[in-house]
Amino acid sequence: MNRKIGLQNTGIICPELFTYLNNTYHLPSDLYVAGSKGLKIKSQEGTTQGDTTAMAFYALSLMKLIKDAKTSAPAAKEVFYADDGAAGGTLDALSQFWDYLQENGSKHGYFVNPSKSYLIVKPNCRKDAQDMFPNVNITTEGHRYLGSYIGTIDGTEKFVKDQVKLWIHDLEGLCSIAQNEPHLSYSAYIYGTSKRWNYLMRTTPQISEHLGEIETHITEKLIPSFIGHQVSKDHRAIFTLPVRHGGLAIENPVEIADREYNNSIRMTEVLWTAILNQEQDISIADTENQDLVDEIKKQKEEQFIQVKFEAINHLSTKDARFVALACEKGASSWLSTLPLEQYGFALNKQEFVDAVAMRYNFPIEGRSKTCICGEKNTQDHSLICKRGGFTSIRHNTIRDTTASLLEKVCYGVEVEPTLQPVGNRQLPPGANVKDGARSDISARGFWTPLDKAYFDVRYYTLVPNLMTTSALTKCMLNMKRKRKGSITAG
Q1: Rounded to whole angstroms, what are the CA distances from 285 to 70, 259, 282, 289?
Q2: Which of 142, 212, 257, 376 is the most buried (most CB within 10 A)?
Q3: Nearest-angstrom CA–CA distance, 397 and 390
Q4: Alpha-carbon span 401 to 394, nearest angstrom
Q5: Helices (H), 191-348
Q6: Alpha-helix residue ranges (DSSP H) falling in 54-207
Q7: Could you list the mean pLDDT of each consecutive 10-residue stretch along the chain, which spans 490 residues?
Q8: Residues 280, 372 contacting (CB under 8 angstroms)
Q9: β-strands 84-88, 118-120: how paired?
């Protein structure tokens, strides 16, 4: 698409957006060539990658061309996505559509490239197609279109298999990175690599059986590279769940492929129906669309709960309690947060592997058998030991982090401020009435201006081996009662 003509069309059709687009594209931008030591070329055509207004720019620039092409070839079912134009119909209808684009496209800044254009026809129409479209690539098998595939079953199967080979190569690269940085590799998979086949699932039907090789590679190589060992079938099922359900969000592509496609068909029904019927105006009812979104989310949530229930039933009681703890609010924030090193969110190899091990009660490699206190150094004991469990360090870390955040919104922030002497006043049972008692943090302006607020930092170490089903709830109730002066034993 020619920018100059595109800006001219936009200025006529949508003056409101023209000012922004003109400021952005009236001069060519510099594109730096990677590895060329400063070599740059001018970007003078199309839009800049990542520009949020790019799709609107394409639509406004080509709107006149699209409408005129439809008038010229009314029997062709046309559709445009950015600058990718396509049409379906008889050879005569497609010939009219193609001839119009070649003759008039340049007037609208749209230049057709026959060498990059493909015509998909039935085998009995191939000869006529070659005569009518001499410079266009003709195929009876199919071709890639917008990241998916249009064509025969055999062509689709070959396309998917070729994509799977590329994705497995990417997974091997992540496995290599995970040898030194498993946290970074895990995040790259969750937020990047896995999205590639998610798109293909939603746009291409009946491909689940071709994704088995990816699932095998994930289970046998990728996950072990993250956590340091192989996993059981039950833990693999747990890992497919979102982190809020105690999983790792590493889905099984074979199991979700058909579901994703069916959901995509339902969500986009208004759009693909409008394309088939060549409707000029599309009306999407926000209420109905939101109801459908809510319904699909509810179905997914029910499936997650069912998978978790079935997998937990095959785990030991202790392992099941670890999964239950991982489902608590905030217990998985370290997994869903991007590993930004400047904020201290990036875990090194030992930290990440140990964190996953503690999440699922896996053995921690390299842990001493005996604690410094002389007790057996189990995972439970290592969390609660007053000498070897670093309880003070964990408490102080929470305190200092909270204080640093309070400094951004309050003033007069102090760590461990001395409290005033109590004298003869009666305080609730459990309160520290000794002279020189200290709070963890104080800050002015938290509740009201000038008033000083005091904060007491507490952290709980929940030991699954000693927990009952209601232990976590009772723990929170005890905390509330202690603030009021009464504690329930148990």
Answers
A1: 26, 24, 10, 6
A2: 257
A3: 11
A4: 11
A5: 194-203, 212-217, 223-227, 233-239, 253-267, 269-277, 286-312, 317-326, 333-336
A6: 54-72, 91-104, 126-132, 153-178, 182-188, 194-203
A7: 87 90 86 81 82 88 90 91 90 93 89 91 92 92 91 93 95 96 95 92 92 95 94 93 94 94 91 88 77 92 92 88 87 91 90 92 85 83 77 88 93 91 76 82 92 86 56 64 45
A8: no
A9: unpaired
